[in-house]
Design goal:
Blueprint: H1 2-18, H2 25-32, H3 36-43, H4 47-64, H5 73-88, H6 92-102, H7 106-126, H8 133-156, H9 163-183
Helix pairs in contact: 1-2, 2-3, 4-5, 4-7, 5-9, 7-8, 8-9
Length: 189
């Protein structure tokens, strides 16, 4: 795990200097004084570096937030997603350009989106929100829309308290909660 993190750090340092397109396993190997095959065995395609970052941030977010049993699922999701954005801060300057670059590579962008969907599914499950069946799939896709919109704001949010990101995320979650109550009302006693 530590070796993966060090390789990822070199890749992101190179990205800051040369851009994501110019990052190669050969350059990383030269800087780390490793055999290129070692890096390729750890990561496979270069996009795996981004996917491993998403998994690590998700794992750290889930481990860092203690969910209050008296809070609503919306509050839990808010806390978990804000922890996700907080842990992403060291990469804020490079994630936008990397994602913008990946949009031009549909197969790689699909891999990133699938990793994000997996991450969001785990967050929903952590808050005891069902992800099964048609309604669960709708929740996952709805949370993806909220996340992507919040991510777009986060990329430009230079305030240390991430006020714009928090407001966007909160608004999206409140809207989703209203839609959810409309589509799946609580049974009347």
């Amino acid at each position: 795990m530590l070796e993966e993190q060090l390789i990822r750090k070199v890749a992101f340092d190179l990205t800051r200097k040369e851009g994501w397109n110019n990052v190669t396993f050969t350059k990383i190997a030269r800087i780390k004084k490793l055999n290129k095959d070692v890096i390729e065995n750890l990561y496979g395609p270069k996009i795996e570096i981004i996917k491993s970052l998403i998994r690590e941030i998700n794992r750290d977010s889930l481990n860092s937030v203690e969910l209050d049993p008296n809070s609503s699922p919306r509050d839990h999701l808010f806390d978990l997603l804000m922890a996700h954005f907080d842990r992403s801060m060291p990469y804020q300057d490079i994630l936008g350009p990397i994602i913008a670059n990946q949009i031009l590579k549909p197969c790689e962008m699909k891999d990133i989106l699938l990793e994000i969907l997996t991450s969001l599914t785990l967050l929903l499950k952590a808050t005891n929100i069902s992800t099964s069946g048609i309604s669960g799939k709708m929740r996952i896709k709805g949370l993806l829309i909220i996340y992507v919109n919040s991510f777009r704001v986060w990329l430009k949010d230079s305030n240390p308290d991430l006020a714009k990101t928090m407001a966007t995320l909160d608004h999206g979650l409140r809207q989703a909660e209203k839609i959810s109550l409309f589509l799946w009302p609580s049974p009347k006693a």
